[in-house]
Automatic annotation (TrEMBL):
PANTHER family: RIBOKINASE (PTHR10584:SF166), SUGAR KINASE (PTHR10584). Pfam families: PfkB. Residues 33-285 form the Carbohydrate kinase PfkB domain. The lineage of its organism: Bacteria, Bacillati, Actinomycetota, Actinomycetes, Kitasatosporales. It comes from the Bacteria. Transmembrane segments: none annotated. This is PfkB domain protein. GO terms for molecular function: kinase activity. Keywords: Kinase, Transferase. InterPro entries: Carboh/pur_kinase_PfkB_CS (IPR002173), PfkB_dom (IPR011611), Ribokinase-like (IPR029056).
């Protein structure tokens, strides 16, 4: 089949309720007066990756399970308004949702509603095969029932990426994704020895590229058995929220991969996209465009070469 899509994003559609708090951790109190208020908007990990890829000019398609509820309507509207094709399967337990507590310095704590998952849920395999046949690459979010799509995507011959987020390097659920993807993103947050975990993923799994993001400390890239560090980029505006920064990093990195760039340059793409995301309010869903990203990457290369 003719490839009509650059990236198929599988999973991670949902809704967040954003609550601004005076600090994290939040001290116990009977009540707090919240400003600038509490807002509910569509946008979880898969949505943010899809939005980021789309803003960068990549043909993007999103597949996930969504409920017949208000939250599902918000997800549908987000994709419709941005012009991102969405293939949905019915989720009887409802659309995924979470509450994000956001501190003044941009840090966040996410509380996910575990009742909105369905361990018995399945994507229609015929639909997955049809979408896989029309795409170059698949980015698989670690939500249910996405693990079941991995063998189907592999059989279709598409390359696969995944983001393990704050994996501790041990949990078996995340390991399923870690060992079946060609490109693995994860955060250093819960890792006692990031390099050891990265090499373990590459050594036991299929990954040819493993990237560990470390917030303001930049990111680490394992490729061809060599570990390299990429410093963080300076955000183009004040940092207001870290929510979605990892998803933006993955989007930028994948633009580089699909454009044939060396992984080290892909890391610069990701770094710039992630820094931009930190300047977007938690209630927003804006993403950096291709022209701005490439211009900033070129500036960074000059700065660091002169450096």
């Amino acid at each position: 089949m003719h490839q009509q899509t650059d990236v198929l994003v599988v999973g991670g559609a949902g809704v967040d309720t954003v609550v601004h708090v005076p600090e994290l951790p939040l001290p116990h109190a009977d009540s707090y007066m919240i400003r600038p208020g509490i807002e509910t908007r569509a946008g979880q990990s898969g949505d943010f990756v899809a939005l980021g890829l789309h803003a960068l000019g990549l043909r993007t398609h999103h597949l996930d399970m969504i409920g017949d509820d208000h939250e599902g309507d918000l997800v549908r509207a987000l994709h419709r308004d941005r012009g991102i094709p969405l293939t949905e399967a019915h989720q009887a337990s409802g659309t995924k949702r979470a509450v994000n507590l956001v501190a003044p310095d941009g840090r966040r704590l996410s509380l996910y509603d575990a009742s909105r998952g369905d361990d018995a849920g399945r994507f229609d395999e015929t639909a997955v095969r049809r979408l896989a046949a029309a795409t170059r690459h698949a980015h698989v979010v670690i939500t249910q029932p996405c693990a079941l799509t991995l063998p189907v995507l592999r059989e279709a011959g598409v390359t696969i990426s995944t983001d393990l987020h704050d994996w501790d390097g041990v949990d078996g659920y995340h390991e399923t994704f870690a060992l079946q993807a060609d490109i693995v993103f994860l955060s250093t947050t819960a890792l006692t020895d990031p390099e050891r975990t990265m090499r373990d993923i590459a050594g036991r799994g299929r990954a040819r590229i493993v990237v560990a993001t470390a917030g303001a400390d930049g990111s680490y890239l394992l490729h061809d058995d060599e570990l390299t560090h990429t410093p963080a980029a300076t955000p183009p505006a004040p940092v207001v929220d870290s929510n979605g920064a990892g998803d933006a990093f993955a989007s930028g990195f994948l633009l580089g991969v699909l454009s044939g760039e060396h992984p080290l340059r892909c890391a610069l793409h990701g770094t710039v996209a992630g820094a931009y995301a930190c300047t977007v309010p938690s209630t927003g869903t804006a993403a950096i465009g291709r022209e701005e990203l490439l211009a900033r990457v070129a500036e960074l290369e000059k700065e660091r070469a002169a450096g």
